[in-house]
Amino acid sequence: MGRYVEALVTSACSVRLMSAVLKPAEAYFVPMTEAQLEAVEALERQAHPHPWQRRHFVDCLDSGYQAQLLMAGDVLLGYFVAMKGFEEVHLLNITVSPAYQRQGWAQVMLKALALWARGQGAQWLWLEARTGNNRAIHVYKAHGFCTVGQRRQYYPAADGLREDALVMSLKLSAPD
User: Fold this and answer.
1) pLDDT digits (tens, 9 = 90+) for 121-153
2) Where do the structural domains in the chain lie, given as residue ranges?
3) What's the mean pLDDT in 81-96?
4) CATH 3.40.630.30 for the 3-171 domain, yes or no
């Protein structure tokens, strides 16, 4: 993230987390690098039945996509990967550690991504969600995303089958 936008994200999305030993820790974003891919891959496998492979992350990093880790001390809470286009940003992957789901971390990452996207001049934020991923769809709708279409047989599913994806978009307003 650019320094200005990074500072905004840090101040806008700075949150406190209570650890298992009840010591508060700041949650913060750091750029994803190849050095962290082992931890990212492990979390990806925990969180998804059809996880991205290392090569997907490497390709995104090599292409210069926006890839951020959400950390609390040494704990990887989650991450997102997004691709910038002309006046739009496409969210390719957003993952929250199963141990930290249902605690608002997806919303924190979506807010940070929207802030960064606005700073890049994007007017729209796009994503796909598995039609069967009701929890994610609920999070996206709560964040203001609208369903605008469907991609047939977009995602791999069990037994060699495919699952449809909802195409969702969010019109980005000017920053407050």
Assistant:
1) 999 999 999 999 999 999 999 999 999 999 998
2) 3-171
3) 97
4) yes
Q: Is the pLDDT of residue 17 over 70?
A: no
Q: Would you state the structure tokens that stand for residue 159, as one six-digit string?
A: 């037994």
* Selection from 94, 112, 119 nearest residue 14 by Cα: 112
The CA distances from residue 147 to 28, 49, 90, 91, 131, in Å, are: 30, 23, 14, 14, 11
Could you tell me the pTM of the whole model? 0.83
Residue 95 CA from chain centroid, whole number: 6
3-state SS record for 64-132: CCEEEEEEECCEEEEEEEEEEECCEEEEEEEEECHHHCCCCHHHHHHHHHHHHHHHCCCCEEEEEEECC
The two three-digit tokens of residue 119, written as one number: 């700073």
Average per-residue pLDDT in the chain? 87
Round the CA-based radius of gyration of the chain to a whole number and report it.
16
Token code pair at residue 157: 């599913």
> What are the strands of the beta sheet with 75-85, ordered from one edge?
15-18, 24-31, 66-72, 75-85, 88-96, 124-130, 162-171, 146-156
Cβ-contact 91, 125 below 8 angstroms: yes
Please name the helix (run of DSSP H) or strand (run of DSSP E) that holds residue 14, with its range, or none.
none
